[in-house]
Design brief:
The structure holds two protein chains of two kinds.
Chain A lengths: L2 H11 L5 E2 L2 H4 L16 E3 L4 H14 L3 E4 L16 E4 L6 E5 L4 E4 L5 H8 L4 E2 L12 H7 L6 H4 L6 E8 L4 E5 L12 H5 L7 E9 L1 E2 L3 E9 L2 H13 L6 E6 H11 L9 E9 L1 H17 L4 E4 L3 H12 L1 H5 L5 E4 L9 H15 L3 E5 L8 E5 L6 H18 L18 H4 L2 H14 L26 H4 L7
Chain B lengths: L1 E2 L4 H10 L3 E4 L5 H4 L6 E4 L6 E5 L4 E5 L4 H9 L3 E2 L13 H7 L6 H4 L6 E8 L4 E5 L11 H4 L8 E9 L1 E2 L3 E9 L2 H12 L7 E5 L5 E9 L1 H18 L4 E5 L3 H8 L9 E6 L5 H8 L4 E6 L4 E6 L5 H7 L3 E6 L6 E3 L4 H11 L9
Parallel strand pairs in B: 1-3, 2-3
Antiparallel strand pairs in B: 4-5, 5-9, 6-10, 7-8, 7-9, 11-13, 11-14, 12-13, 12-16, 15-17, 15-18, 16-17, 18-19
Classes of the chains: A alpha+beta, B alpha+beta.
């Protein structure tokens, strides 16, 4: 097979304007939100129909060309990093909401639909799509499915996987499969294939059409800000709220560095002197929320908060969340570079984990900003460094590695919602045994015998570059990959 | 003779030494736990017990053979519960059997089914390999999610050994609103009005086996707010559907326990679960009225439960509607009735996890 043959076959599937091959056209696709890595693909195709996606996958399978499906490229784990000489199948033009049935509370969508657009379409019926990754303004459902994306509001109603009822997909060998249904309980007859597919990081194939469930927009929100004079106290407060029997829809923590950054960019009205800021949100029927709110206030007061603020209007609530969701980019304003991890610890170890991260930060002499989904123990330490200083990135990565090891040693996970992707694949062995990984590999090959779908992600081997703890990757030395 | 391993090593040995095994937990779901061929029963009952339960974490890990009633009791001591409301608790069902059969009950309407609460598993596959998937924390995106995959797998891919769940604080008080309608269409009108409203309900069941159509709506929450919420729901439904009669049941524990034990279905020999879309309820009900049976619809019309003696006509009927059913009680042959989706993918998984077909056909 030559490149020429591949392109001539590709041109039979796609009109020329849907095939990108010029360097300048490929540039935006060379990396995703994990910008430390770049790889130039052979070509990018922009399918406009389901059949074009299927045909492209079948061609790749026939000609042994690896492919990566891509939405908006917001993966923080390098999940949509192209494969050298592979094909990028960019799904943004498959962006139709095929059906919206408010009475059954479902929407049928194409993979390129932007997460927030589902809520926009559903809100006239008083419904919304619950999973809310911080990138929900641009990230697509296809990508959310591949990486089982989470968000601040996953505490009560779960992650992406808990909101997908059915999928039609083209598997890596070109087979089209359909599983799940419009029923809320339609998965899990004969085994839950939807559950298996969601979070498989694009290694099985590409979702073509997805049935998602919608939830009624809560009648009432109560959003509380609690300020603490140390971060550990804020962490402990999370355990106390959970133990009190309340079920908030979101519980987030920001440390002082993150607060300063968010305030500088959004002016969200956060108490600036706080060392730890806890955001707790209750939602639901008015009467129930008001009763819960009374309990919550008592718990928060007893937890040693020195200041408590309650959002008095929808605008104030929106501003609080705008500050929180924009915190990552805000941190970008106070540091030239950062790496972010999303390890998970059991909730009762939050205080301990935060104390340890702060110790590591001092030991490495690197600033760490903490912005995280505290309610489910999902940390997001942002390790700040200056890439222009030699050895700074390596030092930041070493610190990140220690934080992941800490999560594992406390009984947690290396990733809560960003996925393993390319970035954390070397840590899979610390979480799973050789047998576990061998079985996962066999499953992957059952759907992708040639390992062409998103090759190099999730497993600690393969062609794509792995982020090593120390020193340059061999492919970097050869000039195959590069870091910014 | 039943094989009863007491630990993982024994379980692995049993799997490697036998050609054909049928997994059994508490044996409450007879259609899934009775041998129809020359298989030996692999009884998981001796691998039981809660391994870890940390109330402040709202998670627990238990062996597959642990009876649900043990778990329910342990959680209740700390005001916690299994929100997916597994069936047949007092009849002796196990946590492993609940995952394998995916038997969430009426209460799954509020927060989700088995799949929405399972966090991690360890199982032994058909090649005797002990495999772990998922984790013990409430959020985890590392590796393929085999924990969810095993939900509803009826023991065909491996023997679950242990599993971790998240749980929730149990609502401290409950009340049930019983609404009576002349015809099913009126009841569905009420349900569709309810599902597009912000009113929060814990269970929504429809009973079609009485003289009139009965809709049971359960609400749970803090006592201070509950009476007001029930009153509001009552008014809302009166305004939005032609209701014949309304009754508030303040002490509803027994009512829902009897639903959990399938008492309403006890005079029939077969019991079948059929996931459906709410829009299919009326169609399915019309067709089933022609066959001697009792029907109940849970989760606001998302699950149909059929109690029936002779289910020989059901396959054709479900095929017509492109539905699939799982026989839970009754004859042990072919548990899936109708159109099983994703069969090709299931076969591929079977090749990986049970290539010698020790655990039976899909």
């Amino acid at each position: 097979m030559t490149a020429q043959q591949f392109f001539s076959r590709l041109k039979k599937i796609f009109p020329e304007k849907q095939i990108l091959t010029q360097d300048v056209q490929l540039l935006p696709y060379e990396s995703d939100a994990l910008t430390a890595f770049k790889t130039k693909p052979r070509a990018v195709v922009l399918p406009e129909t389901e059949q074009e996606v299927i045909d492209a996958v079948r061609l790749c399978y026939e000609m042994d060309v690896p492919f990566v499906a891509r939405g908006s490229g917001t993966s923080l784990s390098g999940g949509s990093l192209p494969i050298k000489d592979g094909l990028v199948i960019a799904l943004n033009r498959l962006n139709k909401i095929v059906k919206l049935d408010p009475q059954q509370r479902i929407a049928v969508v194409q993979p390129g639909v932007v997460n927030l657009h589902i809520t926009h379409a559903a809100q006239v019926h008083g419904l919304y799509y619950a999973p809310d990754p911080s990138s929900q303004l641009i990230c697509t459902i296809g990508g959310n499915i591949a990486f089982n994306s989470g968000g601040a509001h996953c505490l009560k109603y779960g992650m992406t996987s808990n909101h997908v009822l059915g999928i039609r997909a083209v598997l890596a060998d070109g087979t089209v499969a359909e599983f799940g249904s419009e029923s809320l309980d339609g998965v899990g007859v004969g085994a839950d294939l939807v559950g298996l597919f969601v979070g498989s990081e694009g290694l099985f194939g590409i979702a073509l059409e997805i049935i998602v469930r919608l939830l009624p927009k809560p009648e009432k929100y109560r959003t509380v800000l609690a300020a603490y004079d140390n971060l550990g106290k804020a962490g402990d407060a999370v355990g106390q709220v959970v133990a009190s029997g309340l079920l908030p829809s979101a519980m987030e923590i920001m440390d002082n560095l993150a607060i300063q950054a968010a305030e500088a960019s959004v002016n969200a009205g956060y108490p600036q002197d706080a060392q730890g800021l806890l955001i707790v949100e209750l939602e639901g029927e008015s009467e129930q929320v008001e009763s819960e709110f009374e309990h919550l206030e008592q718990v928060i007061r007893a937890s040693g908060a020195h200041e408590i603020r309650v959002a008095q209007s929808d605008e104030e609530r929106t501003l609080i969340w705008k500050g929180r969701k924009g915190a990552f980019s805000a941190v970008g304003r106070i540091s030239p570079d950062y790496v972010v991890q999303d390890g998970v610890v059991p909730r009762s170890y939050l205080g301990e984990a935060l104390t340890e991260i702060s110790r590591l930060s001092k030991a490495y002499d690197l600033r760490v900003a903490n912005v995280f989904h505290a309610g489910d123990g999902n940390l997001h330490p942002l390790i700040l460094y200056d890439g222009k200083q030699s050895g700074a990135l390596e030092k930041a990565e070493a610190l990140a590695g220690e934080i992941l090891q800490l999560c594992i040693s406390l009984g947690g996970s290396i990733t809560g919602e960003h996925g393993v992707g390319m970035e954390k694949r070397d840590y899979m062995g610390a979480m799973f045994s050789e047998v576990d990984l061998e079985v996962m590999q066999e499953i992957r090959r059952a759907f992708d015998p040639k390992e062409i779908a998103n090759r190099g992600k999730m497993f600690p081997s393969g062609e794509a570059p792995a982020l090593k703890l120390h020193g340059m990757h061999p492919l970097e030395k050869k000039g195959v990959i590069s870091r910014e | 003779m039943n094989l009863q391993p007491t630990n993982t090593e024994e379980l692995q040995a049993v799997i490697l030494e036998n050609k054909s095994l049928l997994l059994r937990g508490g044996g409450t779901k007879t259609a899934l736990s009775t041998v129809a061929n020359e298989s030996m029963i692999l009884d998981m009952g001796k691998i039981n017990g809660i391994i870890e339960y940390e109330p402040s974490e709202y998670t627990f890990t238990a062996y597959a053979g642990t009876p649900l009633r043990t778990i329910v009791a342990a959680l209740a001591e700390h005001g916690q519960y299994l929100p997916f409301d597994p069936l047949l608790v007092e009849k002796g069902a196990t946590i492993g059997g609940t995952v394998a059969a995916n038997t969430s009950g009426s209460g799954r309407w509020r927060y989700g089914g088995v799949r929405d609460f399972i966090l991690g598993i360890r199982f032994v596959d058909g090649q005797g390999r002990s495999v772990r998937s998922g984790g013990k924390v409430v959020k985890n995106a590392a590796g393929f999610d085999l924990s969810k995959f095993f939900v509803g797998s009826i023991g065909r891919f491996g023997a679950l050994v242990e599993m971790t769940f998240k749980v929730f604080p149990q609502p401290r008080h409950y009340m049930t609103l019983q609404m009576t309608y002349a015809i099913l269409a009126n009841a569905m009108q009420a349900i569709f009005a309810l599902t597009t409203s912000p009113l929060e309900t814990d269970a929504v069941d429809i009973e079609t086996y009485r003289d009139e159509i009965v809709v049971l709506i359960r609400l749970g929450g803090l006592e201070t707010a509950l009476a007001g919420r029930v009153e509001r729901l009552k008014n809302f439904l009166s305004q939005n559907s032609p209701v014949e009669a309304i009754e508030i049941i303040e002490d509803d524990l027994q009512l829902w326990q009897s639903v959990n034990h399938l008492e309403w279905a006890s005079d029939y020999s077969s019991f079948i679960k059929v996931p459906i879309a709410p829009r299919q309820v009326e169609d399915l009900e019309m067709k089933l009225q022609l066959i001697q049976s009792k029907r109940r619809y849970s989760a606001a019309g998302n699950i149909a439960w059929l109690a029936i003696n002779d289910d020989s006509q059901i396959a054709a009927l479900l095929n017509d509607l492109q539905l699939v059913g799982l026989r839970i009680l009754g004859p042990a042959d072919s548990p899936f009735i109708g159109q099983l989706k994703g069969r090709d993918m299931l076969q591929r998984m079977k090749q990986v996890l049970d290539p010698h077909n020790i655990f039976g056909d899909i």
